[in-house]
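Regression test case RT-17, inverse folding.

Input:
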């Protein structure tokens, strides 16, 4: 009972922290739409967050007239309090002078990185910092980025988002991975356009950044596909193709030396598009020494695999 109440308390407060950060973004950018574009949310999502925040605080934060987000007097007071609270929140857990570095590093990672890059990196890390613990959190890129922004993770290895990062977040590139058309080996033609329009299509989940890239490629090249399945897990997509369910557009990981038996990858030539993999983290001054070392190891191992 107590654990459930405590968990709910933590969840509710982390939600309000995110909403306060959104409030600050709205004040900086002037409209819900502009704020949403900056922080990676839809206008509707920003509006919903602000309504929840108003309900929780019991005050009207905005004047409901026109498109501009004009703060009320109480809204302006709340904004100042939010800025102070977020600044204080960012210092929680920071080591004081003379104290030892944090004993745990919280790292988010998309599934493909957990299978390829991460095991070797963590092995090096724990040899270098035997007193430290690490926690790996799985998830989609957008959710992991938001957890870094909220202070729940020290860093995350994700697909680069199709929008600008929040001003207090940093990006370190790791890999530039080309997309290929993956087909069953018995399909002998290399005409990717014909294969996409004539074969069933296994779609990379549109909720992910990589899936959004696939969706944009299909629109830009006027390819009308017949979806048969939508999956986020790349290994599952590869197996579905091998089993003859359909064809798929998937990134070729840097660590991949050859595709599994039963499938082959078709080069899209001049139409090739890429996904960028990298580390997102808060400003380096907010990272512990072990966290900084882990980020450096990720960069070194990724470079060695190219």
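Golden output:
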């Amino acid at each position: 009972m107590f654990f459930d109440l405590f968990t709910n308390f933590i969840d509710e407060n982390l939600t309000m922290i995110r909403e306060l950060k959104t409030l600050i973004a709205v004040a900086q950018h002037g409209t819900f739409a502009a704020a949403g574009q900056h922080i990676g949310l839809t206008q509707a999502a920003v509006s919903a967050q602000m309504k929840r925040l108003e309900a929780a605080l019991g005050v009207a934060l905005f004047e409901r007239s026109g498109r501009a987000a004009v703060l009320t007097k109480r809204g302006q007071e709340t904004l100042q309090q939010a800025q102070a609270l977020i600044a204080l929140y960012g210092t929680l857990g920071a080591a004081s002078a003379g104290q030892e570095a944090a004993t745990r590093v919280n790292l988010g990672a998309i599934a493909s990185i957990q299978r390829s890059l991460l095991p070797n990196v963590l092995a090096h890390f724990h040899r270098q910092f035997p007193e430290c613990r690490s926690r790996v959190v799985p998830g989609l890129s957008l959710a992991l980025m938001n957890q870094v922004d909220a202070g729940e993770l020290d860093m995350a290895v994700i697909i680069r988002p199709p929008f600008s990062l929040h001003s207090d977040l940093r990006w370190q590139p790791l890999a530039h991975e080309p997309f290929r058309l993956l087909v069953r080996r018995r399909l002998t033609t290399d005409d990717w356009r014909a294969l996409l329009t004539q074969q069933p299509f296994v779609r990379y989940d549109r909720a992910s950044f990589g899936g959004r890239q696939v969706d944009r490629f299909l629109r830009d090249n006027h390819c009308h596909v017949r979806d048969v399945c939508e999956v986020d897990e790349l290994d599952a997509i590869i197996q579905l193709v091998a089993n003859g369910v359909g064809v798929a557009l998937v990134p070729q990981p840097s660590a991949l030396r050859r595709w599994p038996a039963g499938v082959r990858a078709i080069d899209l030539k001049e139409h090739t598009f890429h996904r960028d993999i990298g580390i997102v983290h808060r400003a380096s001054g907010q990272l512990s020494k072990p966290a900084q070392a882990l980020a450096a190891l990720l960069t070194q191992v990724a470079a060695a695999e190219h």
